[in-house]
Write a structure and sequence with these properties.
Layout lengths: L4 H15 L4 H8 L1 E7 L6 E7 L4 E7 L1 H7 L6 E10 L2 E11 L9 E12 L2 E6 L2 H4 L5 E4 L5
Antiparallel strand pairs: 1-2, 1-8, 2-3, 3-4, 4-5, 5-6, 6-7, 7-8
Length: about 150
């Protein structure tokens, strides 16, 4: 009878690699958090808040403080929602719904399909692939809230 030990050992090793937790999990925890930036807009400064939740959900909220000051609290922020995942030293955000954030009544968001890939350096995310028609040549750069580094 032949020795089946090498075949059994290789099967065990293969099963071990298939059940080992993904290396993306530590990266996901590393990138998870709240990121903020301010940028000029046509009629108002835009304040953007990007939240990358540990569970893979993403939210991008854009508010317009100059318009709120000029016209009052009826100027609602825009909220985009979707998912994100880590890609080594970058993170890809896919936003699939967009809508206004009303103060009292809920508004039904509309569908969208926007992808932004951010390069990560320390406490900063910088868009490296994004819709330039929406964000211009300067793109987007966010700083992580509460991050020291």
């Amino acid at each position: 009878m032949r020795n089946r030990f090498p075949a059994v050992l290789s099967t065990i090793l293969l099963l071990g690699t298939l059940t080992t937790p993904s290396l993306a999990a530590p990266a996901r925890l590393q990138y998870a958090g709240t990121y903020v930036t301010t940028r000029p807009g046509v009629d108002s400064t835009q304040q953007l808040v990007l939240v990358l939740a540990p569970n893979g959900r993403a939210t991008l909220t854009t508010s317009f403080p100059d318009l709120v000051q000029r016209y009052g609290p009826g100027v609602f922020p825009v909220r985009e929602t979707g998912t994100w995942h880590a890609l080594g030293t970058s993170a890809e955000v896919r936003l699939t719904a967009i809508g206004l954030v009303p103060r009292r009544n809920r508004m039904k968001p509309e569908r969208e399909d926007k992808r932004i890939v951010f390069g990560a350096t320390g406490c900063r995310l910088t868009a490296i692939r994004y819709p330039k028609a929406l964000y211009g040549e300067a793109g987007l750069t966010f700083d992580k809230s509460g991050c020291k580094g």
